[in-house]
Design goal:
heterodimer; A: alpha+beta; OB fold (Dihydrolipoamide Acetyltransferase, E2P); de novo design (two linked rop proteins); 7 helices; 8 strands; 35% helix; B: alpha/beta; two-stranded antiparallel sheet; 6 strands; globular
Chain lengths: 243, 197
Amino acid sequence: MDWRDTGILLNTRKHGETSLIIEVFTPEHGRHAGVVRGGTSRKLAPHLQPGAQLDLHWRARLEDHLGSFTAEPQRSRAAAAMGDRLALAGLNAVTALLSFTLPDREPHPALYKRSEQLLDLLPQIALWPLAYLRWELALLDEMGFGLDLTRCAVTGATEDLAYVSPKTGRAVTRAGAGIWADKLLPLPPVLLGHDPADNPDIAEALRTTGHFLSHHLAPSLGDRPLPPARGQFIDRLARPAAG
Amino acid sequence: MSGTDEIERLIELMSRLPGLGPRSARRAVLHLIRKRALLLKPLAQSMQVVADTARECLNCGNVGTSDICALCEDEGRANGLLCVVEDVADLWAMERANVFKGRYHVLGGTLSALDGIGPDDLRIPQLKQRITAEAVSEVVLALNATIDGQTTAHYIADQLEGTVTLTSLAQGVPIGGELDYLDDGTITAALNARKPL
């Protein structure tokens, strides 16, 4: 068995003295793991940093084996991220969430494309938090827990949408919420695409999307807690000086 | 295969060392036996001494043969500079360069969500205590230029911000390095950190 594809490196683990087990996100083969022989060498190690874009060749005797990768670097994103705390926190959040949410070996080409675009935007850190928020909405959508923010679930109105139902992910207007308002999640204007938004606004919107990640998506994946990297990114974003 | 259980046992133990496998361990053991007086006995004695005395420095996390290592005991190094490294191998690498004349603090790893290593698993609380107790004026974050290393550096920087001057090692072209063989990330870092000649 073998295939060739491009992919985003999500994480690495040491395997023996000189090899690594890497986990990548590819357009055709989804989240896929494999061994890179000599991955800890001085030649290869700098290229095998999370977020790196790699040209991958996977081989295994049987389809369900772990198999091994030959990885050629296409471009690194580590340098762009390392110099900026917010960018680094963002890169960690994206790779950790992809690793956490994606099913093994199931292709998600649309999400892959969005993830690649998002990571390529890392050097433009002023734009990045909003792009991250939109990516996270796309991630929820791709995993089957998308939010419907087009109209009120109660009244059908499209104006004055102010809340999100924590159960259905549908928008609710102030009038529609009535006495249930305190049981609903806030719907920050930035989630409706109303620009401009500053980083604390985006952090608030991410707390709303976080509810669906932790209360809907995570239980479907075995009820593990969300990766802490996401929370660290939001904490940094929420600081007034961030960005 | 070697003739005695004791020698087999030695080969088996040696083969667990980094960089050695069963074949190379067998060669090493054979070499030691042939150089019994010159190598084997002094090695055995040294290993016994280290096995009896090696311990982690209570102050910095370096490995030495006393509770407080020689670097921490050296009053000449109490100059307000504290270099934070990931592990003891990094401390020894810094000492080989013979440039840094301050004290060290070994974290014992880096933050890693994948491996479940959080701030409480590293020696970060001790670092905060030392900054106050030893009147540290500058903390040099000499952590690896990896995503995990830099995530840890930024976390420590957040924790210490406003209390002390924070610096980190430069990133760029290594001595003897050829641009053609460098990854694009290193070239980007080197270009961003360019300096006037």
